[in-house]
Amino acid sequence: MAEFEQAVQAISRIFNAQSVAVVGASGDPAKYGHMTLDSIIRGGYDGQIYPVNPKGGDILGRRVYPSLTDIPGQPDIVVVIVPAKFVPGILREAAQKGAAGAVILSGGFREAGRADLEEEILSISRKYGLRIMGPNIQGINYLPNRLCAMFFPVITVCGPLAIISQSGSVTAALSEWAAEEALGISAAVNLGNQVDLCESDYLEFFASDENTRSIVMYLEGVQDGRRFLETMKRTTAQKPVVILKSGRTLAGQKSAASHTGSLAGSHQVFSAACRQFGAVPADDLETLYDSAKALATMGEPKGDRILAISTSGGVGTLAVDEAEIQGLTVPPLPEACVEELRRLDLSPLATLSNPIDLAWIGAKDFQEAARLADRFDVADVILLTFGDPVAGAAEMVKELADSIRAKLVVSYLGGGQEEKLARPTLQQAGIPVFPSPERAVKGIAAVIHATKYRQKRARKLSV
Amino acid sequence: MSHNGRFILEPYAVEYLKQYQIPYPDHGFAHTLEEAVRIADRLGYPVVLKVVSTHIIHKSDAGGVVVGLKSADELAQSYQTIVNRVHKTMADASIEGMLVCQQAPDGLEAIVGALDDPVFGTTVMFGLGGIFAEVLKDVAFRIAPLERLDAEEMIAEIKGYPLLTGARGGPACDMDMLIDLLLAVSRLATEKPDIRELDLNPVRLFETGLMVLDVRMIEKTHGTTTSQNSPVSAHGGGPQKV
Questions:
Q1: Interface predicted TM-score (ipTM) of this complex, two decimals
Q2: pLDDT digits (tens, 9 = 90+) for A155-174
Q3: Structural domains of chain A sorted by starting position, each given as residue range(s) with its CATH number in brackets
Q4: Contacts of A268 in chain B (CB under 8 A)
Q5: Euclidean distance between CA atoms A105 and A192, whole angstroms
Q6: Which one, of A330, A336, A335, A282, lies nearest residue A309 by Cα?
Q7: Kind of pairing between the strands at B27-30 and B139-143
Q8: Which of B139, B141, B218 to mutate to test the interface with A (most CBs of A within 10 A)?
């Protein structure tokens, strides 16, 4: 079996563990050892949980075992939150107990100058076939198994996004955003030091994970650049990947001897590599999230034409402006379409072009205008921008989505209570909702680029 | 200016171009003025004179390039001028000789290069020449090995792309040859891993064909390795104190 296939299997075994030993569980609520145990319990894990702490006793109503050796039965995995120097010993014990994997939250390894400790746990891993996630991570969360082995946050809203992130806070932020708006995640992985399992392994896993529809990555560097590219190529043929890479790297000095050397910033080369292999590069955290959301919900539009319909001129114009910046097509409305729009009972103040400014906050106007435009095949994506609270919008939009060919996207601007209520309903129905027209258009652009790439690849292969 | 490798003298760099059928002007490598004149006679005027020195990578900056030489007299004068200028600006520079090249007609200029990216390895770059690349940084990259589609896409990606297809009244460039050039550079950089960095700058583009007017290549020094380590964040997410 190829090495990467073994890694994918290992990740699956760890994520789907039926019994977990939490080594370093603590009775002190301020300690990570307590928070992690608490997360696993509150996350709804229904497998066996074995807290381990030399003090023994009881934590959160669970019996605590003084050591790994004392626990009855075999832990599938160990979740480790003890000082780094104790970790090698714990791993050896875990291997004796037949564990398949270790999720090591503990820091204090290579990043703290203890490369030797990290070498040691790597050789234990190799010797016993005990696969390692981490060390130095906030944790991992795999929702299909309700395994939230993360000191925070506890996310239980299951959905289509898989998060792979080098930063703990970014992992937490993306998970929380997805949970807050009822979008949900399939999994969240904080990469940490990647002594064993690395970003390419996780990418490989999520590529074929049926609970995941889009993969969102936050990276500071890459373990093995060439392997990463090959993995990306394989993955993006199956599902969309969006990546934000921050600037910190170990790149050598930029060469001043050649123009090429002095122009090749690592960030530019990384973005180019993403485009070349089908991933969508994001410029900032917000766009990363918005793109992942759009990619997880929208499906594939047939082209890059966008029509904006709004309650107010300003909002629609913002959308169309952003569309042009993103290189999308903003088609004019065909004359015949405009004629028919005039015959609808729209406001006399409505502007009938692209954007269509309804100058009215009635859900029915949106529905009729969108249906009409769709009959004339004006656009591949129709963006409804509610500049003001539109009563009954959620129901209208859901109905509309089912009856038109174009993909539907919603953006509110100042939606207040209406937006809060509509958002979860619509997101669950696969219609992404954005808090501003520009964010909506950036999300749409990500989907269109990913679609174009996948179609181009498919065409090449069929030639 | 220090760099992490040995600079390959242009006459030898040109040999690599030949191997990959990359067009470079007819030329000769002269070690004396007499030799230079003989070469110019063979090539036919006008010619371009370029200094060849291990110490000079940026020839124009050192006053080491003269174009449009129409006679043996002009050639002789410029030969001496270059020697003087070089000695004035870089007293310690040794001059190995002069390249005498056939002068190419005018055309739109591009820059094509390759480098060893620390994460992804051999990477190819394309942009329009002069201020487009140097000041506006309007360049595109692709990771080697390039496929034809990659070359097409990276050309179309630059903001100045309309100039290549004949905007502003200029002629369109030979797109097929430009694509072939990018593919050839990709093959060269991939097959010759000893070359760490290369610049074809400028590449002059014509309606039919193109010509590389200058090439810079930097060889890896022994013991130079490509770093492929990812950084370890002190704040990888895990607890610092457990």
A1: 0.85
A2: 999 999 999 999 999 999 99
A3: 3-139 (3.40.50.720), 176-297 (3.40.50.261), 306-455 (3.40.50.261)
A4: 139, 141
A5: 9
A6: A330
A7: unpaired
A8: B141
